[in-house]
Amino acid sequence: MSTAAPASALPSYDDVIARYEPVIGLETHVELGTVSKMFCGCATAFGAEPNTQVCPVCLGLPGSLPVVNEAAVRFAVLIGLALHCDIAPWCRFARKNYFYPDMPKNFQISQYDEPLCTDGYLDVEVDGEIHRVGITRVHMEEDTGKSLHVGGSTGRIHGATHSLVDYNRAGIPLVEIVTEPDVRSPEVARAYVDELRELIRALGVSDVRMEQGSLRCDANVSLRRRPAPGEPDAPFGTRTETKNLNSLRSVERAVRYEISRQSVLLDDGERIIQETRHFDESVGRTSSGRSKEEATDYRYFPEPDLTPLALSAEYVDELRASLPELPAARRVRLIAEHGYSARDLVDMRNAGVLDLVEQTVAAGAANPVAARKWWLNELARRAADAAVAPADLVITPADVARITVLIAGGELTDALARKVIDGVLAGEGTPDEVVSGRGLAIVADDGALTAAVDAAIAGAPDIAEKVRGGKLNAVGPLVGAVMKAMKGQADPAGIRALLLERLGVS
Amino acid sequence: MTDHPTSPVSRPAVPTTGAAVPTAGAAQGDVTRLTAAATAAAIAAGELSAVEATRAALERIAKVDDTVHAFLHVDAEGALAAAGRIDQRRAAGEPLGPLAGVPLALKDVLATRGMPTTCGSRILEGWQAPYDATVVTRLRAADVVLLGKVNMDEFAMGSSTENSAYGPTRNPWDTTRIPGGSSGGSAAAVAAFEAPLAIGTDTGGSIRQPAAVCGLVGVKPTYGAVSRYGLVAFSSSLDQAGPLARTVTDAALLHAAIAGHDPLDSTSVDVPVPSVVAAAARRDVRGVRVGVVRELSGEGYDPGVQAAFAAAVDTLTDLGAEIVEVSCPHFTYAMPAYYLIAPSECSSNLARFDAMRFGLRIGDDGQAGAEEVMSRTREAGFGPEVKRRIILGTYALSSGYYDAYYGQAQKVRTLISRDFAAAYEQVDVLISPTTPTPAFPIGAKVDDPVAMYLSDLCTIPSNLAGGPAMSLPVGLTDGLPVGLQIMAPTFADDRLYLVGGALEAALDDRRGHPLLDEAPAL
Ligand SMILES: [Zn+2]
Fold it and tell me: Whole-model pTM?
């Protein structure tokens, strides 16, 4: 069996891509965020003590029977609709039979040839270009338990002295979303998973946390020779399936590695073995799992303990009507309405402030740019310092909106605004309360300001003379002196105007 | 197999304190000979206490079960405690169910708190379910007294109860013969007067065939009428729990107690339970159209069975029923279809017995991996018939064979349902012998599985189509009971009781006593 070539020996990626076209399909498992499990009433909370969220049904005890969780069906239909799928008016669950200690019944209730959703697509944007990824199917199934291998050095089964199984996860509802082999690059593969995650998050049906395993991705990768000009496409090559990629970065890296690895084999005239592979994040390589030849025969058959799922057209239409605004449409709207660039949107989303910015604009921010600026820079930084999500900061979008209004009205400078934010975050109340509580308002009182201006002029007669002589830009140090005297509580533009006025050059 | 040294049977001595039985009034004579209806009536009238009825059953078990070996577990303490509570509540004037205080034997395939649930298998030896099957919950709620768990073919696979890991049960009519199966323990317990009622389960005839060969009434309700929650699955799309009793009325009372929609079982149907008790009491079949199934007769049917069946048909005619011969051509294919569907489903259902979470564990020496422990446990824990069916089902479902086997069998199932539908356009019920032969000797067919499978020839079509069916004793051949099967459309379970009640009354009248009175003393 051919094994992974050392990374250093791999040919340049650009060189590979010039000769081969990658053909990539993705299978994504998403844990649905239902309160209870797929086929029983057990809780689904993440991180509970092992085997505390179990019952006869999800432990597969003799005699227990499954009952479908309606919320899970609803969530799966919402995902299907958001992916432009057809929703089957009638479909069934099937048993996927294989033995594994973390599978309580030694079969998984899944769907086989009668999935809930079929034939959709998701548009993915990379560098301004739209790639349409076909969705073959979205089907429902239950998650397995989780094995913990104890006694080995790696936490893997190899070398372990014994294993423990936590069945809390067993029976948590999953959907599996399978694409057509439409993806042609690691970047698009990554962007697809990213976009899918955004879409599902927008639907509110899963927390899609890859690091917690609530979204897991398998990548099917094969290569075919690029045709010479005028030649038809070559047939698809033999594919490998790299399992359980648990970050966007891993999706891209693993696909990229597989492309290079397969190219070496093909260049050497070897054949690709159809197999599952595992991606080791620490070294950035995939390694062989089990080959197709020794793969399990799952002996699928219709689940006799469940009646077929027959969804009425009205039910599906109601769900269709209830779909929230989806990420792609939202991006189009935000660009049109608020004048953001595509880059701005990516930055705001990555910083986790997009919703907050939009809420700030809605709460009456001075303008969308100011809302973006304050959240993306100052507040995202504050959140990072406090190790919380921006949304979990004490300050509200309405507070931020008010601060931008105060700045635009000349009542706060940026520096003062930061002090106001300090106060709000310290629990001193609303921005207006902090302004009055800390005495942060710009001093508009002519008496104090005029006195400070006169003192500044008197203190720097040479500068004053230059300005009087028409060098208006020389006024800067005087503005600084006044600001210092006023302890910052003044509007620099107003000071400048007042200085010029007193110097008789306005 | 005459001894069962590894039997987990626990038969504590029956406490002897308290009033001796029987008592006065309706309960005069041997309390264990009373029907369930009479027992309940005597308890309701205060002529008999639930404790007395329970104690009588326990004494009978202590006396005859070493011979019959119906029980795998007797819960004397629990039964007497439950009976005591029922007596207290009756004394306090609280309302009680129509079967309050009546003792019952549970097939050991139903998950039951406080008792072992073994399914007749070594692999579940000592396992205590942490929950009650819905049938058990309903029985407890109906104030029925649970005496214990009774023997069965391992995981309900068999027609003789010889496939139990805990030794065979014997037919009370002739203890050298099988009591039928898989609910052989249920049938033997009722026929031996150890309990007036028993719960069995029926996947291909496992209530009706034991009822037939033990001279009892046994009913497989419509699929979906009785919850399967807690019934350890053999073949999910076929399994159904139902009553075994000595009379049609008793069976109806038990049927009514356990039937009804259960949200814990997705295949349980939310329709009103038909009035089976009223139907059992009507005793009027004038104008009822009765179809005799042509395909369930002839070659292979014991002459004595045929004679008793023919006499019963004459009796129905005398009672004013219209007898019609009906053809159900696809019934011929029922057996092969059943022996693909049931093993296929069982191969998957029994996968969970893997030593990981419950039951037997073999080979866990700190070195062996999980796969090896699973494999060694299953090798040691399952008996040969269970293994045979798991292998058969695994093969039938495997890639490349599914369409030819499982898929084809499902098509046969549809054709059989159509045969039934066409027949019920002409008739109200269908009848046939329940089994081609009476009880055969223990050991006679253990080496010939196909001959054993033929025991269920007449009963399988109803499981495949889902309709209800009853077996009713109609006579003897060479001193062994013969059963007549009545089949009805889905959710018309009351028709079984209407026809069965009328036929039973007429036969008892003619005979002057119930058939079971002719069983030899144990
Ligand atoms: Zn559960």
Answer: 0.88
